Amino acid sequence: MPSRHSEGTTSDKPWNQTFSHSMWRANNSVHRALNEQLRSLNVTMTQLGIVMTLDQHGPLSGADLARGQNITPQSVTTALAHLQQIGWIERHPHPVHKRVVLVEPTKAGLLGMTKGRQLVETVVERLCEAVGGPEELERLTLGMRRIAVALDGPDSPVARMWPDPPKTD
């Protein structure tokens, strides 16, 4: 029997059999599995992602991280407070723009990031088996990237709001 919507229209499928429900449920399931796996390190996937971004791009401001991770500045502030508390990041004033605070990973943060990537990989391996192998996982990954580009635009590199100071040799 078709389901009724608030506008009085009908759909041939119940909500739990639609693409939107499947994407929502998969997102929640993956997010939960990743965070459970990272619990032993006392970090979330968002926090690990921030440290990986810092490792990849060098010191960044909180605003740079919020834009690069596509999360709110408040979420970045909360994540950075926790990462600093556990010794994974340190903050320094920008060498030119003193009111800007740059964040970078510590040695402990880089070690934790390496362990975190290994833990995340165990979830990816489970997913690989569940979907039918590496080729199917790659196909699904490509599809998810296409969805993200369709909704958010093409991936853009992390852009620094404040340029690096000139190098002095």
Q: Number of DSSP strands?
A: 5
State the helicity in percent bands. 55-70%
What is the CATH class?
A: Mainly Alpha
Kindly provide the radius of gyration, computed on alpha-carbon positions and rounded to a whole number of angstroms: 20 Å
What's the name of the CATH homologous superfamily?
Winged helix-like DNA-binding domain superfamily/Winged helix DNA-binding domain
Largest sheet: 3 strands, antiparallel
In CATH terms, what is the fold-level topology?
Arc Repressor Mutant, subunit A
Q: In percent, how much strand structure appears in the residues?
A: 5-15%
Main structural class: mainly alpha
N-to-C CA distance: 74 Å
CATH architectural category: Orthogonal Bundle
Q: Strands of the largest sheet, in order across it?
A: 3-5-4
- SSE string, helices as H and strands as E: EEHHEHHEEHH
**Total of domains:** 1
Shape by Cα distribution = globular
**How confident is the prediction overall: mean pLDDT?**
88
Q: Report low-confidence residues grouped into runs of 5 or more.
A: none
H/I helix tally: 6
Protein name: MarR family transcriptional regulator
Domain HTH marR-type: 16-149
Organism: Streptomyces durmitorensis
InterPro entries: HTH_MarR-typ, MarR/SlyA-like, WH-like_DNA-bd_sf, WH_DNA-bd_sf
Blueprint of the fold:
Blueprint: E1 3-4, E2 10-11, H1 19-38, H2 45-57, E3 60-61, H3 62-69, H4 73-85, E4 89-93, E5 101-105, H5 107-131, H6 134-152
Antiparallel strand pairs: 1-2, 3-5, 4-5
Helix pairs in contact: 1-5, 2-5, 3-4
Domain HTH marR-type: 16-149
Protein name: MarR family transcriptional regulator
